[in-house]
Amino acid sequence: MAEHDKAVAAHPKVEAITAFYIHLSVFLVVIGILVAVNLVTTTNWWVQYPFLAGGSAYSDMLWLSSGGCLHS
What we know:
Strand content: under 5%
Helix content: over 70%
Number of helices: 2
Order of helices and strands: HH
Distance between the termini: 19 Å
Shape: elongated
Mean pLDDT: 84
Number of strands: 0
Low-confidence stretches: none
């Protein structure tokens, strides 16, 4: 297989991994903001619920972007 063909074949996986890291970065920023809001506004700790829900969604996204296999 020529180098160009390998690059074309790898393009969808590279896009999926790039999208995962972009979404993960946004998720971490949002969780950081929610932690700050939680600390400032109330003594009840509620921020773990959005963290757990989002974390499970992102673990699914990692699984799908890796093609269902997390090792090479």
